[in-house]
Write a structure and sequence with these properties.
Blueprint: E1 3-12, H1 21-31, E2 43-47, H2 59-62, H3 65-77, H4 82-89, H5 97-100, E3 104-106, H6 109-113, E4 125-127, H7 150-153, E5 176-180, H8 189-193, E6 199-201, E7 208-210, H9 220-224, E8 230-233, E9 238-241, H10 246-250, H11 256-260, E10 266-274, H12 278-282, H13 290-297, H14 304-312, H15 317-325, H16 327-334, E11 339-340, E12 351-354, H17 361-366, H18 371-377, H19 388-395, H20 400-421
Parallel strand pairs: 1-12
Antiparallel strand pairs: 1-10, 2-5, 3-4, 6-7, 8-9, 11-12
Helix pairs in contact: 3-4, 18-20, 19-20
The structure holds iron/sulfur cluster (2 copies).
Length: 435
């Protein structure tokens, strides 16, 4: 057993209101400069929807990128020919600018300087790349207005085969938000695809970074990352990605996105994992077993054997106690309510999600704030407005039962808390509770 420490994040999707504060504060901190206009280390996607960049989950479209990068790397090492080099430069597996969006601002001065006219002057969009006026054809969250209808059904690859579950009635439509950062994977394919060896996973805390001095702008990492969470800076010609705000983490502060999150839905912490078993877990034959394989890599930080092995591997004692106190371990391992995004990509992602219950109001109200009853109501889990198969396609490679268990647990917890806080039996452990 080789125990290593990893920074990880859990996000509770029930609490995300899609305010984009996290994205904006992250951009202000990290990518508010020329060359990174379309770069969102943190973005918040509308689901159902196409995601950002558009269609990144359509792995068939991007398939082969990693293999191409491998062969490119081998040829180059062997002193490869210009033909191969040209093939690498024209890497066909990259998202194009239209898959991100053409960045723009508005002509605000027009509001003040427009000549007198019959209508109120407008502030038309102007491209930040060409400086010319433009019409906006697409951008992230374009799907907001479509709210889970047929208009997005044929564009969201995770809705494939679920067309009959798409709700058309206004009262039945649904939408939720999926905030995304780099997954700081245990098995990062971005690093594996880099011909220059510029991408590395930090020994001490598992944060994945790009060495800007070593990066040669091959962009194989953009192709190789199945989450498309690594971006190309068109000014510097280098790759850039979420840094998990490592200077803040080293200072004992949370990431900017977590600190500014309006919904307080981001939990950050250290976990301990067995580095010797990562490759084996990533090679688990059945996709639906990958979630369990990934969860099993996380070690019990209270186990004396694990604590000893961690110390032997140079992990400081206060980091081990940090892992013991971390909410991450509890949410992933004790309560088993946090799930990885697309475990079938096999990179062992370390950002985990508690799937959304919404809309749960009716269920909890009908249950009379009774946790047991809420669980029973969820027996008819297929009646939930968000198709459970859709959530399963996002978080468990299609295993509906795992998602159903998580939702039942969350419904029971919520019902219990409402019982305490909204006039049911008072919890003697909570002195301020009503009841
Ligand atoms: Fe690399 Fe992508 Fe994993 Fe981030 S999400 S570590 S960029 S493979
Ligand atoms: Fe969601 Fe928090 Fe980001 Fe707002 S700040 S969009 S609540 S993750």
């Amino acid at each position: 057993m080789r125990v290593m420490a990893q920074m990880a994040m859990v996000m509770n999707l029930d609490k995300c209101i899609g305010c984009h504060t996290c994205s904006v504060t992250c951009k202000q901190a990290w990518t508010n400069r020329k060359g990174t206009e379309q770069v969102w280390f943190n973005n918040v996607e509308t689901r159902p929807g196409q995601g950002y960049p558009r269609g990144y989950e359509d792995q068939e479209k991007w398939q082969g990128g990693w293999a191409l990068s491998r062969s490119g790397r081998l040829k180059l090492k062997a002193g490869g020919k210009w033909k191969k080099l040209a093939q690498i430069f024209s890497n066909p597996k990259l998202p194009e600018l239209d898959d991100y969006y053409e960045p723009w601002s508005y002509e605000y001065e027009n509001l003040l300087n427009a000549p007198e006219q019959k209508h109120i002057p407008t502030a038309p969009p102007r491209s930040l790349l060409t400086g010319k006026r433009m019409s906006i054809k697409w951008s992230g969250n374009w799907d907001d207005d479509l709210g889970g209808t047929y208009a997005v059904a044929d564009k969201d690859p995770m809705l494939k085969g679920l067309e009959d579950k798409v709700k058309l009635e206004f009262e039945q439509t649904y939408m939720f938000y999926l905030p995304r950062i780099c997954e700081h994977c245990l098995n990062p394919s971005c690093a594996a695809s880099c011909p220059s060896g510029a991408i590395y996973k930090r020994e001490e805390d598992g944060i994945v970074l790009v060495d800007q001095d070593t990066c040669r702008g091959w962009r194989m990492c953009v192709t190789g990352c199945p989450y498309k969470k690594i971006y190309f800076n068109h000014r510097t010609g280098k790759a850039e990605k979420c840094t998990f705000c490592y200077p803040r983490i080293e200072n004992g502060e949370p990431t900017v996105c977590a600190e500014t999150c309006v919904g307080r839905l981001r939990y950050i912490g250290l976990i301990l994992y067995d580095a010797d078993r990562v490759t084996e877990a990533a090679s688990t034959p059945n996709e639906r077993d990958l979630y369990a394989a990934q969860r099993d890599l996380i070690l019990d930080p209270f186990d004396p054997e694990v604590m000893n092995a961690a110390e032997r591997n140079g992990i400081p004692y206060d980091w081990i106690t940090g892992a013991q106190e971390s909410p991450i371990y509890k949410l992933i391992k004790d309560y088993e309510v946090a799930l990885p995004l697309h475990p079938e990509y096999r990179t062992m992602p370390m950002v985990w999600y508690i799937p959304p219950l919404s809309p749960v109001v009716d269920v909890v109200k009908d249950a009379g704030y009774d946790a047991e009853n809420a669980v029973n109501l969820f027996a008819a889990i297929e009646d939930l407005r968000i198709p459970i198969e859709y959530l399963a396609n996002l978080f468990t490679a299609g295993d509906v039962d795992i998602v159903a268990d998580v939702l039942r647990r969350m419904a029971a917890m919520r019902s219990y808390m409402r019982d305490i806080n909204l006039g049911g039996e008072g919890d003697p452990m909570i002195p301020y509770s009503v009841g």
